[in-house]
Amino acid sequence: MDLNSSLEVMSISLNETINGELGGPLGPRGPGQLRFQEHIKAIRWIIFVVCSMGLFGNLLTFLASSKIVDNGDSSGTVFMKCLAVADNLACIRVILNTCMPLFGLNLRGLNVPVCKTLAYYSGCTMIIANFCLAGLSFDRLLAVWIPVKYYQESKPKYAWGVCLAVVLITCLFCIPLIFQFELAPPKGLCDFDSTNLLAEIYMQSNILGFMFLIPCILVGGTSVAIVYKLRQSSKTSSGTVSVSIFAS
Is 24 inside any structural domain? Predict the structure, then answer.
């Protein structure tokens, strides 16, 4: 969906790969395994650089949206601020989970409290960031479809309310992650209990549904509706198109 979601998926796959292949006592390692280690290290550095750039870019977005004054904050700038903060939290999580081994620290296998905290933090940040993006997309949809009413009645307090509701609901929804993740033997990897059917169902619905599928449908649907409205407006007057494009 966005850069941070892609990095999350990459970081999860990367950690599963390196922990599964190189985390245990493998004995003497051949040239192929050593080359694989070097490739993993290079990927970690790439992720670290990209996430660092993401942190800087999101900080600039937050500062720029704070400078936009149109009778105070608009709902659009509020959603941009919320999304920038959520994306930064997601970037920090990717750095903590994936890039710390570059500096000799593997947080995933440190201890049980850190394992549970990272699992909970990861789930919350991914869902919050994606639904903040969906909220921003829906806000732009209203600005394009009903521009006059939108600019007359759009208030920042409703956007703050939506962001707060997303945070609170997500924090409650992700509480089961605290109980489902443990340091699994024999290698002490942080993973959820796959033998528990309810835990498996929850994880699949969480990852596929709330982290990706539902936000993708919301963002994709609003994008299609915005493009449709712009095309319809282009058949009436160029002025309407200009207003709609500016609003979007």
Answer: no
In the chain, the amino acid numbered 240 is T
- For the stretch 159-215, pLDDT in tens is 899 999 999 999 998 888 888 887 766 556 777 776 777 777 777 777 777 777 888
How is 39-63 classified by DSSP, letter by letter? HHHHHHHHHHHHHHHHHHHHHHHHH
**Residue 190 burial class via C-beta count within 10 angstroms: exposed 0-12, middle 13-18, buried 19 and up:** buried
Number of domains within the chain:
1
Range of the domain at 242: 3-13+34-247
Instruction: Determine which helix (DSSP H) or strand (DSSP E) holds 199, and give its type and residue range.
Output: helix 197-204
Q: Is residue 190 part of a domain?
A: yes
Q: What is the pTM of this model?
A: 0.72
Look at residue 172 and tell me if it is in a domain.
yes
DSSP summary character for residue 196: -
How many CB atoms are closer than 10 A to CB 98? 24
| In-domain check, residue 151 | yes
Length of the chain: 248
- The answer to whether residues 103 and 110 touch, using CB atoms and an 8 Å cutoff, is no
Query: Is the separation of the CB atoms in 90 and 58 below 8 Å?
Result: no
CATH of the domain at 133: 1.20.1070.10
Cis peptide bond N-terminal to 28, omega within 30: no
Q: Is 173 exposed, middle or buried (0-12, 13-18, 19+ CB in 10 A)?
A: middle
Calpha distance 70→49 (Å, rounded): 35
Q: What is the tens place of the pLDDT at every residue in 55-79? A: 999 898 888 877 765 445 678 888 8
**How buried is residue 34: exposed, middle or buried, by Cβ count under 10 Å (0-12/13-18/19+)?**
exposed
